[in-house]
Amino acid sequence: MRESMEFDVVIVGAGPSGLSTAIRLKQLNAELNICVLEKGSEVGAHILSGAVLEPRALNELFENWQDLGAPLNTPVTKDEVYVLKNGEVSKEIPHALVPNSMKNDGNYIVSVGNLSRWLAEQAEGLGVEIFPGFAAAEILYHEDGRVKGVATGDMGISASGEQLPTYMEGMELHATYTVFSEGCRGHLGKQLIQKFSLDTNADPQHYALGIKELWQIDPAKHQPGLVVHGAGWPLEDASGGFFLYHTDNNQVVAGLIVDLNYRNPWLSPYEEFQRLKHHPLFKQYLEGGERVSYGARAITKGGWNALPTMTMPGAMLVGCDAGTLNVAKIKGTHTAMKSGMLAAEAISQVLADDSLSLGKTFSDAFDQSWLKQELYSTRNFAPAMHKFGTVLGGAFNYLDQNILGGKMPITLHDTSLDHAQMQTVAQAKKIDYPKPDGKLSFDRLSSVFLSNTNHEEDQPCHLTLADDSIPTGSNLSQFAEPAQRYCPAGVYEIVEQASGPTFQINAQNCLHCKTCDIKDPAQNITWVTPEGTGGPNYPNM
Amino acid sequence: MKILVGVKRVIDYNVKVRVKSDNTDVDLSNTKMAINPFCEIAVEEAIRLKEAGIATEVIAVSVGSSASQEQLRTAMALGADRAILVEAEGTVEPLNVAKAFAKIMAQEEAGLVILGKQSIDSDNNQVGQMLAALTKRPQGTFASNVTVDGDSVSVTREIDGGLRTIKLALPAIVTTDLRLNEPRFAKLPDIMKAKRKPLDNTSFADLGIEVKQHIQLDKVEAPAARQGGVKVGSVDELIQKLKDEAKVI
């Protein structure tokens, strides 16, 4: 028998949505016993985002966040949008023609890791128990099927499954309500969506992979508050976009987001990003600078059309675990926070009056909220890009967002599955990526090094295969095993041996981005939690 | 017998250390901090001695900023009974740390002090030895085995080319090496309980120690980037390069 602990609410994942849930619950009822589990070694260690923050939800959570020292240090001062024609030429889109949803007046450039650290301090100040270094590995159910809580993973199990001298059994955390806020493609959220058929009335979810670097640059080139977005080169076979934000302390963040419905199996999001940095638009700032950190994370971007039901018996899904990101704004932090706050408000009502149903209480509140309004009015943005391409889709979005205010009386659906889009190597054009120069562009391993990623070596592999033969079988013959290229951390390798090709999983490198779980064409890879604390240790990301 | 263990807050061993752009120090802003791994081994050894019925109380002591409370709480979650923080800003020199430990050792009448052999940030390897000198008590450094027997302790030390076992009269000072033990994981309920265990704040002034600075940090520089290698076509070319370019033959 595992030991157990009882709470009113257990929250899985200490990011903006989970911590906003915890804080709002405590604000509504200080007596509640609330616990937050976080698989990273500390709060903020595993999270990364661009990020430009719209402070709307934060204003509602803490009116006085400025006095409380929230890390919103860099207001957006200038907004630029570009289309890159090729590796040399860029064209700036006049501000008037940019869809309104992409404008950033009143927003802040933040590190979502530091925002999470700050939110955690506020939550602890209100009496929330936060446990970093503990991964929720398993969902627990009551006999009637209601969610009962979660169990943390066992620690000190060897790669072959034996108990080491440091073995410590996992613990059960029981709660009246469990809130899952694991971020995009949470491994428990995925199970819940399936078990409770939460996505029956939703379009298939869509994803993207975001890769980000933090650079220390020449102070003479630094323009704090400058926000640059754009699309075009180097992505030919995929949709996506890039960002470059000048944050504080002479640092800039640069990143590329690649939609995971891309078709060409030769495409490597990592290498697309590396060559993007050689474009004059990036090079002008980065040249002579020093790369400080590196990371990657998948993004849930299906928006309104793909949003699953967020409530189920005894539990809720919030933030990117559900998919509340507003792709038209390229922002998910404010919506994730708001979804957590709405969840907290519903849970607190239901805890006080058990004649209420969580599903109805939440959906009534959600329907009245600006979150619903925001997601609904931008529901066509991404499907338009997918259906009509960047230019016509962009024109559609300009019309919908700037002229009609998101009230276009039609809804575009994108019902294709991201993982099913891949062409075979016979159909696709091979892409030759330039070698990294070691100044602006780098190889995968030196990048992973900067993410401070570490996993205890002697533990079971946390990247599990349903069928061991697929990577060197159909995935190799049809797609040249694309995991070698879509993984931004070099986890997957096909190694040629005398006995033939073998599939090697370097699980220690894993950044927990979840791309393999999403994009494997055979849906053969399942990401499970490694031992707690394992994974990246992002600073300021 | 009471045991004092030292706990230092240092940059996590997984984190790549970066030098500040003005070369004044390493950059620690928002980086993951943790208990110095050698101190963690010291905590584990003390807890094992308590579990074996040899120690009556384990007191974790840290000298540093108020943020070090986090590491003291971790030590208490692992099993230390209480903690003392000697609050001090900035870098504290080994001699001052040793003086603080000497005072607390006397106040608490500790029978054994277990410290990490060195911290992974400054790598000084001095506090244990200095503490032994200040208190005029025996020291067993680089311990890979510790056995308490009545009023003495046997310490197996890792020395060049082998092991040396020495017997020290208690009270004594022991510093830990890597192979002494493998620290346990903290349990969730123990982490919660640790929040309620006593943590006393004190300072050098309270302890009656006048802090003197003997060391000044002039400059911190990252190691020079490694130059890429070249492939040579023949032995003759290699010899020529060793002669003309490397100038080593």
Describe this structure in words.
The complex is a heterodimer of chains A (541) and B (249). Among the domains of chain A are: 223 residues, FAD/NAD(P)-binding domain (3-Layer(bba) Sandwich); 32 residues, no CATH class. Chain A is globular, with a radius of gyration of 22 Å. In chain A, strands 1, 2, 8, 9, 10, 13, 19 and 20 form an eight-stranded mixed beta sheet that branches. Chain A has 15 helices and 24 strands. Chain A has 541 residues and is an alpha+beta fold. Helices cover 27% and strands 24% of the residues of chain A. The mean pLDDT of chain A is 94. With 249 residues, chain B is of the alpha/beta class. Chain B has a single domain, classed as Rossmann fold (3-Layer(aba) Sandwich). Helix content of chain B is 27%, strand content 27%. Chain B contains six helices and eleven strands. In chain B, strands 9-8-7-10-6-1-4-5-11 form a nine-stranded mixed beta sheet, with helices on both faces. The longest helix of chain B is centred in the first third of the chain and has 15 residues. Chain B is globular. The model of chain B has no long low-confidence stretch (mean pLDDT 95). At the A-B interface, helix 3 and strand 12 of A face helix 5 of B.
